[in-house]
Amino acid sequence: MVLIGGVTILTVVVMTIVSPYISPFNPTAINAGPVLQPPNSKFPLGTNHLGEDMLSRVLSGGSVMLQVAVLAVVICSITGVSIGLMGAYAGGLADKISSLVMDSIYAFPGLVLAIAIAAMLGPGVINMALAIAVVYVPSYFRVVRSQVLTVKELTYVEAARALGAKSRRILTRYILPNLLPSVVVVVTLNFADAILMAAGLTFLGLGVPVSTPDWGWDLTYGRQLLPSGAWWVIGFPGLMIVVTVWGFTILGEGLSELLNPKLREIA
Amino acid sequence: MVEPLLNVQNLSVEYASRRGQVKAVTDVSLTLDKGSTLGIVGESGSGKSTLGFAILNLIPSPGRIVAGKITFDHTDIINQNEDNMRRIRGSQISMVFQDPLTSLNPLLKIRDHFTELFKVHSPSMSKKDAISRAGELLDNLGIARERLSDYPHQFSGGMRQRVMIGLALALNPRLVIADEPTTALDVIVEAQILELMKRLKDEYELTLILVTHNIGIIAEMADRIAVMYAGQIVEVGPTNDIFADPLHPYTKGLLESAPNIIHPERSMRPIHGSPPDLITLPPGCKFHPRCPRAFEPCPIREPLPVECKHRLVACHLYN
Amino acid sequence: MILLLLTLVFVILRVIPGDPVLLHFEKAASPAAMNAMRHELGTDKPLLNQYVDYVWGLLHGDMGKSMVDYSPVSQQVMSAFPATLELAIYSTAFAVVLGILLGVRASRRFNSVQDHGIRTFGTITYALPVFFLGMVLQLILGIHLHLFPTGGRTAIGMEPVGLTIGSFHIATGLYTVDSLLEGNLVKFATALHYLALPSISLGLVICGTFIRMTRSNMLETLRMDFVTAAKARGLPNRLITYTYALKNAFLPILTMIGLQFAALLAGAVLTETTFSWPGLGRYLVDRIGFRDYIAIQGAVVLFALLVALVSLVVDLLYAYLDPRVRL
Q: Is residue A51 domain-resident?
C-alpha cells in the first residue's frame, strides 16, 4: 500500500515539475486551438472555453495546490507539534488552556473555518495555506499530546529526569523520536485533506487569482460548461485531484499499518 | 451391547497460521455411552477445547477438520450440512462456556436469551410459554424469576454461569459439553456450581463431557477420564483406576503436580520442560522429550493405544 | 466551551481583519457613508463593547444586521437553515446505510476480493472532492440521462406549506416532512427527487469512514465469545450478524455520526454551491461575495452551534441506548 501511494504521489509531483518542458502547448495560451473541442488527436484531452489545451492545463494544474499543501502542512505540523509538546509536557494550566483552544478549533466544520479565514485574509497562496493550516493544527496537537502524556510517564524518562537531564534534552532526545511515526501518518493525511480543501477554496472563489492554471479553477469554470455536455473540462482535472488525494490517503494508511503493527489485521 | 451415544474416530483438526499448520488435534478416538460423564483433562494447548468444538462442528476458520469421523446418535457430524447442524446445536448437543461474562450478549436481557433460543428451535412455542419455561429453568437453577428482565452485567459470576447452564439445558439436550465451566469462578462458587451440575446431570439424565485442566473437578465429576497431550489422547479409562494407578508417565506427572490434601507433605512435582510447538511436533511419542522414562523406541515410533488394565494407553512401556 | 467557540469566531472575523466596514467598501467610499454604516452596525464602539454586544445579542438570538440592507441576519440565517438540515439528514442517512451494508458485507467476507474492493471504494470516495462528484452526477444523471434535476430544492409551485389547523400552523422547513404534513404526495415525491443527487454526492463522500468503522467493529465483535456461544446454541448466521454483532457495533457508529457531523457541514457548503441548494452553506458563500461580514459571522456562528448541539444530542442518545451506561 505504501508503495502504491508513494509511486502515485511521486508521479504527480514529477509531472507537475516537468510540465513546462513537456506540455505541448502553453497552458494559458488562449486560442491555442478551437474552443471547446472534445478529446482528439491534436488535443488529447480537448480544449476549454478559452481554447486552451486541457492536457497542458492538467499537467501543470497541480502546482498551486501542491504548493499550498506543502506550505500548509509545514506551518501546521511545526505549530501543532510544538504546542502539543510544550502544553502536554508542561502540564497544568498551559495544558488545559491549549487543549481547550485546540478542541474548539477541532470542533469546527473545517471548511467553514477555512472559508472564514480565507475570506478575511484575501486571495493568494500564502493566505490559503494559512487558512488551511489553522484548521489542521488541532489534529497534530491531539496526536502529539496523547503520545507525550504516555511517554512522559514511562520509566526511562523518569530515570533521565532523576539524573538531572534538562527538560529540553528530555523533549528532544526521548519524547520526540517516539512521536515521529504517528506524526508522519498525520502529515500524509494532512496533505490529502489540504489538497481537498485547497480545491474547495478555489472552487468557491477564495483561492489564487485566475491567471495560473489550476485544477480547481478548471472545475469552477467547467461548471458553467456542463449543460453543453463538455465533460472533459472538468473530468480530467477532477480525476487528477482524486488520484493525488487518493495517493496520499493510501500512503497514509499504508504507513499507519506499517508503523503501528498493533493495528495490522489478524490473519 | 448398547451403542455409544458419541463415537469419535481418528479425528484430526488443524489450523492454518502464518508459520504453518497448527495440529491442534491428531488422530483422536473415543466413545461415550449414554448417561456417562467423560472428563477430558490436559494442559492449555493440549487440544481439549478444540475437541469439544469439533463435536459441535464449530471449528472457526482458519481451522478445519482434516480427518476422522464423528458419529452422534447415528448422525454423521462432520459431513452434516449446516442447516441440520444448526438444529442439532443447542437442542441435541449443547455447550457450556468458560467465561459467562463474555459468553452472554451484553445488550440482551436474560429473558431474551431464552426466548430467542426457543424461537429458533421451537417456532411454534408462544412467547408467553417461552418466558414461563425460562422462569422454570431459572427456578431450578436457584435464580429468582424476576431476574429474567436483567442484563448479564447485573449478575454475579456464579449466577451468570447458572444462566449459561440454563441455556444449555433449556431444550433437553442429549449431550452437554462443558468447557472449563468453573475456571472463571472463585472456589466457593465453583463448589456450588459443581453441586448444581451433579444434580442436573441426574435430573436430566445427561451425558456429559467435562473439559478442564483441573484434576480435582474431574475426580469429583467424571466416570471416565481421557488425558490429552499435544493434541492426542495418551490414556483413557475409568476415573478410579487412573487415579489409583496412572499408567502413562504424563498422567502420572499430572497427578503428582497437583496439591494433595491428604498427603500435604508430598511435594508437588512439576513436569520438566514445556508443551511442544504444535506446528513442529517432536517425532515419535510427543511426550518423549519430557518423559522421565523414555527409552529407545520413544523418539522413533509413535506409540499406538493398547489395552492395559481396563484402559487404553498410548505408551511404549505397555506395548 | 460554546463561549469559547463564539469568542473564536469573533476573534477571527472581527479582531483580525480590523475594520469590517472598511473591508466591505472595497473602493473608496465617502467617509460619511462609512461612518453611517459603522454607527448603524455598532462597530464604532470600542472592541470590548462590541464583544459584549455580540455575546449578549446571540443569547437573545440577535445576530446583527446585514451590511447589504441592514435586515436582521438571524432571520436570514434561520430561513436558510432548514434546507441545510434536510440535506444533512438525508446525506447522513444515505452514508450510514450504505456504510453499514458495505461494512457488514466486507467483514463477512474477510480478506476476499469483495472485502478489498469495498475498502478501496471507501478510500476513493473519500478522495473525491464533493463538488467534482456532484458535477459528475449532474452531468451523467441529470443532463445526459435526464433522470434527476440538477439544481434547486424543488420545482416551482411545489413548495410545501405545512399543516394548518385553525390558527395553528406547523411547518418544519423540511420539504419532505412538510409535504407529508400537508398530505400532498406529489410535493413529497418532487422534494425527494430534488434531494436525491445532492444527498448522494455528499453521502458518498462521507460514507468511507462508516464503511471502515462498521467493518472493523463487526470483525471485532464476530470474534467475541458470545457470538461463538450463540452459534453453539444453533442460532442462524443471519440472526447473529444482524442482531448480535450489529447491535454491538451500532453504538460506535452513533458516536461517529456525531464526529463526522462537522465534516458533513463542511461538505454541505460545497454541495449547496454545486446544486444551487438554498441552504446555510450557499448563504455563506453568497455573503462572502457581497463582503457582508456581519452576515458571514452569523452564519459561521450557527455552524459552530449546530456542531455543538449535535455532539450533545449524540452523547445523550448514547447514554440512553447503552444499558451499561446510566446517566
A: no
